[in-house]
């Protein structure tokens, strides 16, 4: 499966932004999808994951209550709605996919990666 992230940009603190991850290739609904982010000088960190059907989700504590992950399998797309953004949310956001199973928060557990989209939150 090929992934392409988009929708990043510059937003003020307290604002909102939605990033998208479009997939092509094999059956998208067979893959759990996650979002990770990487800030300059920091390791890539888990943000959120969603099951193949979209029924189950999993969030990092740092974004819980502010971010929402969702998917539309008919459109082969996963979304990350980000509300109440903070300057510390500034990072390149990557989407990643793995076949089956969604409750994984380590980058090594995902086999397919998109190219990343920059999100910058100004204070």
Write up what this structure looks like:
The protein is an all-beta fold. 0% of the residues lie in helices and 51% in strands. The protein contains no helices and 11 strands. It has strands at residues 2-6, 9-12, 17-24, 31-38, 45-50, 57-59, 67-72, 77-82, 91-99, 112-113, 117-122. Strands 2, 4, 5, 6, 9, 10 and 11 form a 7-stranded mixed beta sheet that branches. A 4-stranded antiparallel beta sheet has the order 1-3-8-7, with no helix packed on it. The protein is globular, with a radius of gyration of 13 Å. The model has no long low-confidence stretch (mean pLDDT 95).
Poorly predicted runs: none
Helix and strand string, N-terminal first?
EEEEEEEEEEE
Q: Estimate percent helicity.
A: under 10%
Number of strands: 11
What is the gyration radius calculated from CA atoms?
13 Å
Basic shape: globular
Estimated structural class = mainly beta
Mean pLDDT, nearest integer?
A: 95
What distance lies between the first and last C-alpha atoms, to the nearest angstrom? Answer: 37 Å
Descriptors for this entry?
seven-stranded mixed beta sheet; mainly beta; 123 residues; four-stranded antiparallel beta sheet
Describe this structure in a few short sentences.
It contains no helices and eleven strands.
How is this fold's topology laid out?
Layout lengths: L1 E5 L2 E4 L4 E8 L6 E8 L6 E6 L6 E3 L7 E6 L4 E6 L8 E9 L12 E2 L3 E6 L1
Parallel strand pairs: 2-11
Antiparallel strand pairs: 1-3, 3-8, 4-5, 4-9, 5-6, 7-8, 9-10, 9-11
